[in-house]
Amino acid sequence: MRQDQILRLPLLQEDFLAQANGQSTRIYRCDKCNKVYKYYNGLYTHKRFECGKQKSFHCVPCNKAFWHKQALQKHQRCSNCDDVDSYIKFMEEGKYQCLKCYKLYKHKFTLTRHLVYECMREPPFACHLCSYTCTRKHRLEEHLRSRIHSSPMVLTDLTVRKIRK
């Protein structure tokens, strides 16, 4: 997170000092789901990105869901998924798998598109405000309109550029 983004968080001064010293004594509770956080930043992040939203990243072998892509990737690296039977069933139903990166696809044309434009390639689109990169222009446009860059100034400057090498 960049310094200017950190300063924009609505954090009380005493909370900031307590958090910096690791001495927070307050408890922050979500008014929708009653989840409790030690620091205001945790509650703030929860309200913006998690509370009331569906987990959109799923592990195919065990069908576990995650809010963040990084959490799914960590799960895939660190765990031995117990429900391998569902993964085998998925493979036997005629699904398509990339032999380079082992990603699975429901349709052959999706696998073909992945092989041509995505697999083992650097994403060609990058956000000019943060480190986000993606393989499709519309995803970058969605990112710029998203919760992260939703200020009116950013939305009026919706210029999507392809990375030049």
TrEMBL record:
Give one GO molecular function term: zinc ion binding
C2H2-type domain: from which residue to which, for each copy?
Answer: 28-55, 57-85, 125-154
Q: Which UniProt keywords apply?
A: Metal-binding, Repeat, Zinc, Zinc-finger
Q: Does the keyword Nuclease apply?
A: no
> Residue span of the signal peptide, if any?
none
Q: What is this protein called?
A: C2H2-type domain-containing protein
Name the source organism.
Answer: Exocentrus adspersus
